[in-house]
Please model this.
Amino acid sequence: ALRASFATKAQKVDQNLQHHLQPQASFKVAVLGAAGGIGQPLALLIKMSPLVSDLHLYDVANVKGVAADLSHCNTPSQVHAFTGASELANSLKGVNVVVIPAGVPRKPGMTRDDLFNINAGIVRDLVAAVADNCPDAFIHIISNPVNSTVPIAAEVLKQKGVYDPKKLFGVTTLDVVRANTFVAQRKNLKLIDVDVPVIGGHAGITILPLLSKTKPSVSFTDEEIEELTVRIQNAGTEVVEAKAGAGSATLSMAYAAARFVESSLRALDGDGDVYECSYVQSDLTELPFFASRVKIGRKGVEALISSDLQGLTEYEQKALEALKPELKASIEKGISFAQKQT
Ligand code: NAD
Ligand code: LMR
Model:
């Protein structure tokens, strides 16, 4: 009897999971760098999505095992493995959303820009393949330094004649996830309610949380603003140091990237109420790329939310001006790298 009741309970849990996972749409998602620290948990979270019919996992090695393992989960999507450059094109055919976490992570003492020499070429080559095989897909760039890899991707797409600025996204969702977590903890708020827009870029002082725009409306002391801003800006380094040479954020990043994928799929599916922060081509400031809240629709970015930049506090306004030179230099570095290749 005990055994029977256990079986029933286990089945119930499975059924509950399945209930949320009835296929609702049939989008194809590719993860490039799928065997890595981010790629594996991200693939698992995407495998949970009811909006996905096919999950394409691409990496230069070790992807077959990851795909075999994931394919045993009784959730709707089919998992397909693609290994090495000769299988890259096939991994991209018919795909709606391409997520790129391929590349090396930081070790203690490094900046994200120190990854440029290796990751710039990886992103350039992968985005060239995206241009050739699924030019209409949404492209989510995770590989660092995001402040430069997104401009590189834009240049590659331009060179291929398929650049649609509305469909190229630098993933900065982790900055928002962190800001929401830290603010909720500091102010004893219910996590689910908290939303902090984070603008600028994705490295050090270019990460600018707009605490004055926190929802629900909260007041902070000057000390709290300074402490929270610095913690959000250094949160990546906090993880790099805690991992002590074993890499950077992977699990929280996978969570954040899965949220951004799910938002993109909802937008593609016609949901008219999808807003996320992302580092995109922008005219909100004089910089050609800038992270802000954006409205995402079927065709990609539908609007940049300019109201967040109005009525900034003096602290935020100063921080915004202070981040511009660094962000500008990172953008120019990416563009000139991509232009030198041709
Ligand atoms: P990792 O080393 O664990 O995994 C990277 C994977 O990329 C590996 O499996 C590797 O084989 C693969 N790879 C390398 N070259 C490739 C290529 N040419 N094609 C396909 N795959 C290739 O690293 P990780 O911890 O997963 O981090 C990946 C990247 O994400 C790093 O650049 C890191 O800095 C960045 N990152 C960004 C954010 C963000 O917020 N945007 C957050 C965390 C990490
Ligand atoms: C992060 O913010 O965690 C990532 O950009 C990885 C890193 O190097 O900090």
About this structure: DSSP finds eleven helices and eleven strands in the chain. The chain has a mean pLDDT of 95. Residues 282 and 313 are 22 Å apart (CA to CA). Residues 105-106, 112, 144, 174, 236, 239-240, 248-249 surround (2S)-2-hydroxybutanedioic acid (ligand 2) (CB under 6 Å).
